[in-house]
Amino acid sequence: MSVINITGYDIIKQIGSGAYSEVFHVRCRRSGKSYAAKHLIDACSDLNCDVAFPEIQLMKSVPNHPNIMHIFDHVFEKNALTLIMDLMDMSLYNYMQTRARPFSENRVRRMLYQIVLGLEHLHQNGVFHRDVKPENILVKFSGGIAGRREALQLADFGSATRITNRPPFAIYIATRWYRAPECMLSLGYYGPKMDIWAVGCCFYEMLTLKPLFQGDSEVEMLDAIHTLLGSPSSTILEQFSPLNVNNLKFPNRKGIELRLHLPLMNPIGVDLLKKMLIYAPDRRISAKNLVKHVYFEELIKRKKLSKFSLSHQSIQYIADDAVCPPSIGTKTPKHRNFAPASISSVVSFQTNNTFHILSIDEQNRIKKRRERMWNMNPASTEKQKQTYRMSRKHVKMTDGNGLSIW
């Protein structure tokens, strides 16, 4: 393990490493909270250098999102940059490595939806990732009513760039197995649709636990793509020919129906995967349309059912003790320091680190709806009981022996 010092943080252990960074589990000395610290190996002259810019300056332009890794802090010292981020449990790649058999399609659908939500948020804010792969998708587990749930975040924005930048971009950027055809057929003339192709490859890999395309070179990669999807037409190749000095030609191949690889999959899911793996980037589905695809219809409905865009299974209710005064000698948690107008609210729920307080009017509306549904109004209930008692005094039933029974 590298010997480094991060001012303000204690290093607990190293939890990962790569060609350009090392990741540590750290604890903030001031708050006591645990974080992940990504220490960039390459030296930084300042925060505007090529090493630091994508993950510091560029990501500052992207608002926080639950499916995007959030950078809480950074430490710049001795020409080295360390990023302080959410502490997740593992990468999607490591998660798949723990599996003896593939995930169920419903679970894959839930995880994929979170990935595309994060990607759409990134694209909407003018940034594309350029290196989407299972290693750069992080997972955090939580318990729920329906069992273990996964929260996914897109991470590692060291290769990210602005959509408004004009090509040509860097040629060798994305990891080869998840590299879109336009990245290999043109000299840096690609765009945000390359992220869609990479997510499609991750989609297939989650369903099968096997990479979709494998090759030790770009020629092998293109051969694997053509084996599955068929050779590109001359019209498509003409789109790349002005941008590719080699003008590659490929043997004619028909391709294989994708459903043969996924015989048990929902046909709508196969349709989505096909749209993500369209050869020509201008015909490939966009992130904006991806999140609206009918394959996610049920998840979209659940999201709309909640006022706060959350499933009821992720809601943790806080009881009346939220407004009770703390006992002597007990420190009041920070999340109890609500605004005075909200202190009287006894109904609230927590999602991740965010507390949502219901107003008094909202509580009264909920209470009235429950009373109408369950007839819980005390006055109404007492009136019904009184009516029942009076009716029992005046109504008698007599058996064959003339004895009264109530």
Helices and strands in order:
Layout: E1 9-17, E2 21-28, E3 34-40, H1 54-58, E4 71-77, E5 80-85, E6 90-91, H2 92-97, H3 105-124, E7 127-128, E8 137-142, E9 149-154, E10 161-162, H4 181-185, H5 193-208, H6 218-229, H7 234-240, H8 267-276, H9 287-290, H10 297-305, E11 316-318, H11 340-343, E12 348-351, E13 354-357, H12 360-374, H13 378-394, E14 397-398, E15 404-405
Antiparallel strand pairs: 1-2, 2-3, 3-5, 4-5, 6-8, 7-10, 8-9, 11-12, 12-13, 14-15
Give descriptors for this structure.
13 helices, alpha+beta, 406 residues, 32% helix, 5-stranded antiparallel β-sheet, single chain, disordered C terminus, 3-stranded antiparallel β-sheet
Which whole number gives the mean pLDDT?
81
**Order of SSEs, N→C?**
EEEHEEEHHEEEEHHHHHHHEHEEHHEE
Q: How are strands sequenced across the largest beta sheet?
A: 1-2-3-5-4
Question: Which residues sit in consecutive blocks of at least 5 with pLDDT less than 50?
Answer: 307-330, 332-346, 349-355, 398-406
CA radius of gyration is 29 Å
In terms of DSSP E residues, the strand content is 15-25%
Shape: globular
Structural class: alpha+beta
Helix content: 25-40%
Number of helices: 13
Number of strands: 15
Main beta-sheet annotation: 5 strands, antiparallel
Determine the N-to-C terminus distance.
84 Å
